[in-house]
Amino acid sequence: MSQKFIKLKNNNRANVKAYGKYFATAVYDNHFVGTDEIADFIQRQASVKKSDIKAVLQELGEAMKHFFEMGQKIKLEGIGILKVGFSSIGVAKAEECSASTITTRRILFQPETERVVVGQQKRTDGTVKQKYVTAISLLKDVTFEETHDNSMNVESESNQPSTGGNTSGGGNTSGGNESNGD
Known about the structure:
Blueprint: E1 3-9, E2 22-28, H1 35-45, H2 50-69, E3 74-76, E4 80-88, E5 102-111, E6 113-122, E7 128-136, E8 144-146, E9 153-154, E10 177-181
Parallel strand pairs: 1-8
Antiparallel strand pairs: 1-2, 2-9, 3-4, 4-5, 6-7, 7-10
Helix pairs in contact: 1-2
């Protein structure tokens, strides 16, 4: 299986650089994978009963809430880091700034990444210069495939930033953050 995408033209005239260009846009089916389905999958991969897996997954939410209430970040190996984020109203004086000025609460997710070497070059002094990308571990082996299936859902245009074309949640680049390592 692969992550499906369609080609969409950017018709936002305010975005001069991206206007008129086509971008790959992620599409998803209407089905959300729930706890039962995840438990079934894990059960097939490991020697643990589905009922035990479901119990752990259901308790995970409570455990996360507990640690968030303690002001802690959570690192799930192979997945990433989760932490509390929020917005607040700006006020003129420090003493006016309080918990009552917090307006929006959310969970911030930073996926686990790894450095993947994509090339190397031998220097004249005999050392090797590596070119690498930073890959999100969960997506490193995901393949992509164009679809023409109209039953799939495209992320709404209102959720897409107007500065860089259609980002589909990951930018309109084909790799990670490319840089040169020395």
